[in-house]
Amino acid sequence: MAALADRCRREPTLGCGDIAYTLVVGREHFAHRFACVVRDRDELLQVLGEGLDGPHAFTGEATASGGTRHGEEALRRCGTPAHAEAPAAYRADLETLAGLYVQGTALDYAALFPREAHRRVPLPAYPFARESHWAQPTPPRRSPAPAAPAIPGRTLLGEASALPGEPGALSAPVTLSGDEPFLRDHVVRGRRILPGVVHLEMAREAAALALGADVSAPLRMRNVTWVRPLVADGAPTPVDVLVKLGRGRRCGLLGDHAGRGRHRVQPGDGHPLRHPAARAARPRGAAGELPDGRVRRAHR
After folding, report:
1. Which of 21-25, 32-36, 204-208, 247-251 has the lowest mean pLDDT?
2. Is residue 157 within 8 Å of residue 241, measured between CB atoms?
3. d(C-alpha 183, C-alpha 110), whole Å
4. 290 with 282: CB under 8 angstroms?
5. Using CA atoms, how far apart are residues 20 and 85, in angstroms rounded to an integer?
6. Are residues 74 and 97 in contact, defined by beta-carbon separation less than 8 angstroms?
7. Burial of 208 from C-beta contacts in 10 A (0-12 / 13-18 / 19+)
8. Residue 4 dihedral angles phi and psi, to the nearest 5°
9. Cβ of 201: how many Cβ atoms within 10 Å?
10. Is 276:200 a contact under the CB 8 Å cutoff?
11. Residue 206 and residue 208: Cα distance in Å, rounded?
């Protein structure tokens, strides 16, 4: 208020209409409000000098939602040119609107100003609280935790062991709890489904073991088929990746039945595949190339 009064004293050409138009139409309205009704610049300076507790000041907090009908009637009367010829009634309606404004009543207060009759003028901005805030010294940076060393060998499968009754076959088991990141982040229709790429990585690791190659050795996979997804939510889900060496340069990655033991599935033999089926082999010409084999995968 003091800044506004100072601006009015330094710029006597500012009109009360332009000041009111700027403050009502051109500014954002805060919760704590002040309003006044004056005839001219001198009365405005008097009211501003009296302060927020002065007898002519309207102050309040914008919390009310009533009074809309009463205010709309006052707005309608103020918009009538003949109403301005009755100063007492006109001022009474303006004071009614000032009281409603500081209470937060939502009205079209811009309707008080005839179109293109006033302009926006530069006025003091909102006086923000005069508080100083100093940045605290930057705390010393903590050294980042050392990265976990890479674990050589398999990352998904358990320890491989010979499969009883299956000459040349290996079993690499793993139990899925359902909380693994690749399951927790792969939810389909509310169920945690083992992603296809994890199927392939398990099969690749198992095939590399069967071939006697390094577990990180690349393999070529073809004719990949997913017939049924592997759901791993709720109880822990034990999974076996079964590997059996075969003849030739191809390695078959085959699905298996669950429940009643393991049932070997051969390509094209008519048995339904429960989980992925594919063929995998080491790329031709790889150094130290080993005989390829047949790999099958089982889900208990």
Report:
1. 247-251
2. yes
3. 59
4. yes
5. 20
6. yes
7. buried
8. -65, -40
9. 16
10. yes
11. 5
pTM over 0.70: no
**How many angstroms separate the first and last alpha carbons of the chain?**
80
Mind listing the pLDDT tens digit for each residue in 44-89?
999 999 999 999 999 999 887 777 888 899 999 988 877 777 889 9
Rounded to whole angstroms, the Cα distance separating 266 from 193 reads 25
Q: Would you list the DSSP string of 146-162?
A: PPPPP--S-SS----EE
Average of pLDDT values for 136-145? 75
Q: How does DSSP assign 245-268, residue by residue?
A: --SSS-EEEE---SSSS-----TT
Dihedral (Cα; 83, 87, 89, 95), 10-degree rounding = 110
On whether the CB atoms of residues 296 and 242 are closer than 8 A, the answer is yes
Strand 294-299 to 251-254 pairing: parallel
- Give the start-end residues of each E strand in 26-71: 32-35, 58-61
* Spatial separation of the C-alpha atoms in residues 299 and 265, rounded to whole Å: 13
Q: Write the DSSP assignment of 224-239 as a string of letters.
A: EE--S--B--SS-EEE
Partners of 171 in the β-ladder: 161, 242
Structure tokens at 171: 């079993």
C-alpha 82/C-alpha 75 separation (Å) is: 13
- The string of DSSP letters for 181-215 reads HHHHT-EETTEEB--HHHHHHHHHHHHHHHHT--T
Radius of gyration over every alpha carbon of the chain, rounded to an integer in angstroms = 41
Average pLDDT over every residue of 11-32 = 91
pLDDT at 254: 40
123: three-class secondary structure by DSSP: coil
Instruction: Using alpha carbons, select from 46, 63, 45 the residue that is nearest to residue 6.
Output: 45
- SS3 for 287? coil
